[in-house]
Amino acid sequence: MSRFLILIPLLALAGCGFEAASAQQGAAAFPESWAGHWKGQLEVAPYEGEVKRLPMELTVAKKEQAGHWRFAIQYGGQPLRDYELITEDRKKGRYRIDERNSIVLPAWYTGGELVSIFSLSGQLLTARYQRIGDEIHFSILVTKTSPTSKTGGEGRVPVVGAHLPATYQRARLKRTSD
Fold it and tell me: How far, in Å, CA of 23 to CA of 19, rounded?
């Protein structure tokens, strides 16, 4: 247990330094360098079952209001999800994704990627968007909010909840226009 108590504060301190450096490094490029229309193929891999593929598109465009960006996503033939990316604190990498239907999700731009974590119907979703070269890499990892199993708990070892993935979705999107 004492190893855990020492390791946790060290990791937290290391993370704080990384967070500040990452937010400052990428602040000038995001979201401006992401502006444009991006297309690719989304791969939906369930933990059990067959992998499915469908087209995916992302549009990032500056809006008239400062700090507001159109963040529109479309999967296959589904209706367009015309969201808005709103800057809260650019230096700290804090944003919001407003789905414009009363759902507003926090998002964090750190280490060159935009991360948003939210729960829906007993599932926890971790969405990541990362600009790598001429592509935006997108992924969503879906797990249940309650652990699939628990281990540890003997002596001074903490109980650890294990979460099996339900689905992993990923796409590599290429810019088709500015």
Answer: 6
Domains in the chain, ordered, with CATH?
Answer: 2-177 (2.40.128.20)
Do 124 and 141 meet the contact criterion of CB atoms below 8 Å apart? no
Which H/E stretch holds residue 107? strand 104-110
CA-to-CA distance for 131 and 108, rounded, in angstroms?
14
User: Is 119 a residue whose pLDDT tops 60?
Assistant: yes
Burial label, 133 (beta-carbon count in 10 A; 0-12, 13-18, 19+): exposed
CB burial of 56-80 (b: ≥16 within 10 Å; e: otherwise) equals bbbbbeeeeeeeebebbbbbeeeee
Asked if 136 and 173 touch (Cβ cutoff 8 Å), the reply is yes
pLDDT classification of 116: cutoffs 50, 70, 90: very high
What pTM, to 2 d.p., does this model score?
A: 0.80
Residue 36 and residue 70: Cα distance in Å, rounded?
A: 10
